[in-house]
Design brief:
Shape: globular
Order of helices and strands: HEEEEEHHEEEEHEEEEEEE
Distance between the termini: 42 Å
Strand order of the largest sheet: 1-2-3-4-5-6-7-8-9-10-11-12-13-14-15-16
Number of helices: 4
Helix content: 10-25%
């Protein structure tokens, strides 16, 4: 059933892409190599005083080509640092491999695509090399997946998007256990203000008919405002039946702000709070705080001295306090 649905989605997209090619003869476009690396130097304090080192957290390598008629091709590999030496052969994943088309307010992507669940929040936060956006950080969804997404911009103030995806994320591609369906609406009522609402349903458990398991529902709301002297964003996230377990729910809030302190220096801060019902996720519930200075050394290099704290809800657990120098290099 799942294969048939994905095939149907692909057949729907093909006419759009074919029309884009036939209406306007293929013209020379622009391509670029993608190379991005995140790393940090860190040291802990208190009970983590002996925890220090250098970490190459992530690397992306790929190529993107955009034709002048709106067709786009992109392939990106994602390399992460394994904490287990025996897993070294499994730390590389294909993150993106898609074809897309953008024209007349439409954006259509098919293949191993970037998901729409928290892309707006991630772009607004803008500091993935320091910390993932909330839903990514606390495993409420994946940043990429196999599927089809369609976005239509009605005007400068409103756009809507829909996605049908595998539902397992790009690190676990399989085609036999239901699909994820998502819908989102983005509003820009005034210059600088972005408001977004998103909802999705992952039917994996429903297709398995596994006793006691439920499909996962995600709901998210976001509002952010960018001005030349500051930016501030806030989001609320809710996940029902986490890990396909009935009545295991997660709730989370994230607030982040950036203040320019010069042409190449930004001050920033972020506060997260994650909670769950019935205490099922008590070991991971708590508050995270991040603050630091972002230095844009050049177009390719960003450095950020950062202070980070994790305060668990569990009173028997200790706070984790770290100082870091985060770095991002990209071409």
């Amino acid at each position: 059933m799942k294969k048939k649905l994905i095939l149907t989605c692909v057949l729907i997209v093909i006419p759009f892409l074919t029309q884009a090619q036939t209406v306007q003869p293929a013209q020379q476009g622009e391509g670029k190599f993608i190379l991005t690396t995140f790393g940090n130097l860190y040291t802990g304090f208190g009970h983590n005083n002996d925890d220090r080192g250098i970490e190459i957290e992530r690397a992306y390598l790929g190529y993107q080509y955009k034709f002048s008629n709106g067709i786009e091709l992109k392939t990106v590999a994602d390399f992460g640092q394994s904490k287990n030496v025996s897993d070294m052969q499994r730390i590389g994943f294909l993150k993106n491999a898609y074809i897309g088309w953008s024209k007349n307010g439409w954006k259509i992507y098919g293949g191993l695509i970037t998901t729409t669940q928290f892309k707006t929040q991630e772009d607004f936060w803008g500091k993935r090399y320091i910390m993932k956006s909330f839903q990514d950080e606390y495993k409420m969804g994946s940043s990429a997946d196999a599927g089809i997404s369609v976005t239509y911009k009605f005007n400068d103030r409103i756009s809507a998007d829909a996605i049908v995806a595998n539902g397992e994320g790009y690190k676990k591609i399989q085609f036999g256990k239901g699909l994820l369906y998502g819908l989102g609406v983005t509003l820009s009522p005034i210059e600088g203000l972005t408001i977004r609402a998103y909802g999705s349903y992952n039917e994996k458990a429903d297709s398995d008919n596994t006793p006691g398991e439920k499909g996962i529902t995600n709901l998210a709301g976001f509002a952010g405002y960018k001005h030349k002297v500051f930016s501030i964003g806030a989001e609320y996230n809710f996940q029902m039946h986490s890990d396909n377990v009935e009545d295991n729910n997660k709730y989370g809030t994230s607030v982040y702000a950036t203040i320019p302190a010069g042409k190449k220096v930004n001050l920033f801060g972020r506060w997260d709070y994650l909670s769950s019902n019935n205490g099922w996720n008590a070991a991971n519930d708590g508050m995270a705080g991040v603050a630091g200075v972002e230095i844009i050394a050049c177009k390719q290099l960003k450095l950020s001295p950062t202070f980070r704290i994790w305060s668990p809800d569990n009173k028997n657990s200790k706070k984790d306090i770290y100082a870091l120098i985060n770095a991002s290099f990209s071409l």
